[in-house]
Specification:
- Strand 2, helix 7 and strand 3 form a beta-alpha-beta unit.
- This protein has an 8-stranded mixed beta sheet with strand order 3-2-4-1-5-6-7-8, sandwiched between helices.
- The C terminus is likely disordered.
- The protein is of the alpha/beta class.
- Helix 1 runs antiparallel to helix 2, helix 15 crosses helix 16 and helix 18 packs across helix 20.
- The chain is built from 23 helices and 8 strands.
């Protein structure tokens, strides 16, 4: 969503941080470029003016211009103002109320209201342990109520039985009464939409609000609609009174201006963002983490959350024990590649790692993508279980059979086997030590895969990074840590993702 804006801001900041000293003219020139980048990203003009004025007031002071790292200080100021513009603190859905608590979903047709309703229901059930009832109030759109019932079965959440001929207000009253009688904690009211805002729609929303007295009124808006989404939020807030906003399709290729403008213009918090089509592709909106993504600093917290949800704890524990002993066969590699796909694929992981945005051209040129992961898994899955556990069995005839089974050339099978040997040797060297007490054992524990899950000391982290060959840049005083070195992909391994998970994963890419 923010890729274009992130690229432009990164270019501006690179110019600033390369200079040893900054003048007021340098800051003003950078602000002009920032202003242009925000306007091109479809950010509202009032928001752009306020944003640049705040940055200028803080950046032009003598303390910044004369500081040891003035460029980094300007980056930090932009980051702080960006967080303020997005809302400062994350504000999740408020569930503090006497049950049954009603949440009213409003918005136009096509924004993803019904799907988002099911996603929220799944989230409330799994993360908050709430007994939830969904009710479709959309009597205008054909099969709208049946669509919600299908999604309810998919996410295993109850839906209100359909009664033909009832009005939206009658359905809302029946849903609240059913929730009270059957002990539900939350009722999600999926209201009807229109292709555009009109008086009948607003009158219907106001009537539903009066009858159901919702604790939360959430506007579902399509992030790809840009400034129209901001105008939509203003109109709904004036007539119905919003408590929050849910932005869908944040994984799209839009310019991201709506997300930057909505909180400032409407004063209403963005509570959730839809980041995909799957039922679990719904994240809380965190201003700090979104600001970090925009400025190319990644979002490690989101990556850890995805890993915690997707990775099987028992399987991870067994893998950690094998790694601690220095064992790493082709089945282990296949299992870890499967975990990469569960987390969101290489594209999803790379988008959340700090500094990787600056290397996207190098990554694309190397063929380091999800297609490569799928091809590697296809090769390994074409082997017998015995071959996966003992790669030394691989002779010419076996390689031909595996290549034919996976639809690749024998050369590609050889490349994968060579990469695996390198990874296995690395794991073996890590596993040196008593009872997994070597570097690999510590690495597995640091990632929460081993027993006890101790907190690593700074010295242990430095030892692990030195073993992996990764040089971590130091953060300037009061500044933001710079991005990782551009040759990171050329190192033996990327730490922190399965103990060498991304090491040597590119047998099909171009040679550097």
């Amino acid at each position: 969503m923010f890729e274009s804006l992130s690229d432009k801001l990164s270019g501006i900041f690179d110019k600033l941080t390369r200079r040893g000293a900054l003048s007021e003219a340098d800051v003003n020139e950078a602000l002009r470029e920032i202003r242009r980048a925000l306007l091109e990203a479809d950010v509202a003009l009032d928001v752009v003016r306020s944003f640049t004025d705040k940055v200028r007031d803080r950046a032009v002071g003598a303390g910044v211009i004369k500081s040891v790292t003035p460029g980094q200080m300007v980056v930090k100021i932009v980051n702080d103002v960006l967080i303020e513009t997005l809302g400062q603190n994350a504000e999740p859905i408020d569930l503090v109320a006497a049950p049954p608590l009603a949440i009213m979903m409003v918005g136009l047709q096509g924004a993803g209201k019904t799907t988002t309703t099911a996603k929220i229901a799944k989230r409330l059930k799994e993360r908050h342990g709430k007994r939830t009832l969904m009710a479709s109030l959309d009597v205008k759109r054909p099969a709208a109520q049946e669509q919600l019932a299908v999604l309810g079965r998919q996410v295993e959440v109850d839906t209100l039985p359909i009664v033909a001929g009832q009005t939206p207000v009658q359905i809302a009253k029946r849903a609240m009464e059913a929730a009270r009688l059957q002990g539900y904690d939350v009722v999600l009211l999926d209201t009807a939409g229109r292709t555009h805002i009109d008086e009948p729609l607003m009158a219907e929303m106001a009537e539903i609000k009066t009858s159901s007295k919702p604790h939360e009124i959430l506007l579902v808006a399509d992030a790809l609609t840009g400034q129209d989404a901001v105008n939509l939020a203003q109109n709904f807030d004036e007539r119905v009174g919003l408590t929050g906003i849910v932005l869908t399709r944040m994984d799209g290729d839009g310019r991201g201006g709506a997300a930057l403008s909505m909180r400032y213009v409407t004063g209403k918090p963005i509570k959730l963002i839809g980041v995909g089509e799957k039922m679990d592709a719904l994240d809380e909106f965190s201003p700090t983490r979104i600001a970090n993504r925009i400025l190319g600093m990644g979002d490690i917290v989101a990556l850890v959350e995805k890993a915690a949800q997707a990775i099987d704890a028992e399987q991870a524990r067994k893998a950690a024990e094998r790694m601690a002993k220095g064992k790493f066969d082709l089945q282990d590699l296949c299992d870890q590649l499967a975990q990469v796909e569960k987390i969101g694929g290489l594209g999803g992981i790379m988008g959340l790692l700090p500094g990787v945005a600056k290397m996207k051209d190098q990554i694309a040129a190397s063929g380091f993508d999800d297609k490569m992961v799928r091809r590697q898994r296809a090769i390994i899955l074409s082997m017998t279980p015995k071959e996966r556990r003992n790669p030394d069995l691989m002779k010419a005839s076996r390689k031909k059979r595996i290549a034919a089974g996976s639809g690749v050339k024998v050369e590609e099978v050889n490349k994968l086997l060579k990469q695996h040997r390198q990874m296995a040797d690395l794991m073996k060297s890590f596993g040196a030590g008593k009872r997994g007490g070597g570097m690999m054992g510590k690495a597995a524990q640091m990632m929460g895969l081993g027993p006890g899950m101790p907190t690593p000391t700074q010295e242990e982290l430095q030892q692990l990074q030195a073993k992996l060959g990764v040089q971590q840049p130091k953060a300037p005083p009061g500044g933001i840590p710079p991005a990782p070195p551009p040759d990171l992909l050329a190192k033996p391994s990327l730490p922190g993702l399965g103990g060498g998970l991304l090491s040597g994963l590119n047998p099909f890419g171009k040679k550097k």
